[in-house]
């Protein structure tokens, strides 16, 4: 398989029509567990379906196995990784330019938080990655390069440290600017900023910073 420029992963959390609108020509599509069924139910054939498939019926599993271009299953008990992490590992091995995670947030906050942490794995691999749902777009950045955000439907931008401390935070193009600021876990200083310029720039000197673009109006 040639290296795709973008891979979309659909897991079994909250999904909807918004998730289908993310698909672009040339994207490689992965369905993780119940995410594969969601795709097939909306006439999208996964390039790969993988997981333990403990969230689908035996009939749905047969359909996923029959209709997906590639199918990888594993034992639901004798495994160490979540279906989403297995999908991300596979995606990173393809060396794409970008990975988009859909359906990785939901009612199970243990899974949701673990999936937020998966952004670090993509960051360390040097692959652009973000989590998307109907209201949010979530990225993780470090000090290696600035992050540019483009003004759009996500009206709020919040910053939360994923490491104990994030230092040297500088914001350009925001309503509430920061210069060489520090955030530590437990602070809410970075919540609900607003882009006032077409492009905003975030730089940091150390640490891991979650950047959450959000909108009260769903996609």
Automatic annotation (TrEMBL):
Alphabetically, the GO molecular function entries are:
thiamine diphosphokinase activity
* SUPFAM superfamilies membership: Thiamin pyrophosphokinase, catalytic domain (SSF63999), Thiamin pyrophosphokinase, substrate-binding domain (SSF63862)
Entry's transmembrane regions: none
Keyword ATP-binding among record annotations: yes
Which InterPro entries is this protein grouped with?
Thi_PPkinase (IPR006282), Thiamin_PyroPKinase_B1-bd (IPR007373), TPK (IPR053149), TPK_B1-bd_sf (IPR036371), TPK_catalytic (IPR007371), TPK_catalytic_sf (IPR036759)
Keywords from UniProt, A to Z, are: ATP-binding, Kinase, Nucleotide-binding, Transferase
The yes or no answer to whether the keyword Lipoprotein is present is no
Q: Provide the protein name.
A: Thiamine diphosphokinase
């Amino acid at each position: 398989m040639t290296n795709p420029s973008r891979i979309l992963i659909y897991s079994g959390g909250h999904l909807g029509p918004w998730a289908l609108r993310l698909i672009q020509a040339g994207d490689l599509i992965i369905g993780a567990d119940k995410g594969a069924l969601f795709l097939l139910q909306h006439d999208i054939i996964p390039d790969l379906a993988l997981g333990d498939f403990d969230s689908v019926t035996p009939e749905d599993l047969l359909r996923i196995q029959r209709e997906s271009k590639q199918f990888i299953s594993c034992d639901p008990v004798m495994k160490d990784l979540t279906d989403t992490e297995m999908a991300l590992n596979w995606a990173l091995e393809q060396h794409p330019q970008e990975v988009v995670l859909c359906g990785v947030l939901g009612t199970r906050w243990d899974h949701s938080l673990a999936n937020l942490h998966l952004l670090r794995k993509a960051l360390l691999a040097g692959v652009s990655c973000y989590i998307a749902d109907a209201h949010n777009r979530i990225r993780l950045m470090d000090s290696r390069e600035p992050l540019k955000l483009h003004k759009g439907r996500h009206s709020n931008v919040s910053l939360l440290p994923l490491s104990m401390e994030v230092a040297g935070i500088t914001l350009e193009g925001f309503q509430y600017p920061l210069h060489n600021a520090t955030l530590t876990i437990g602070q809410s200083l970075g919540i609900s900023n607003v882009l006032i310029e077409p492009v905003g720039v975030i730089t940091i000197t150390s640490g891991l910073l979650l950047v959450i673009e959000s909108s009260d109006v769903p996609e």
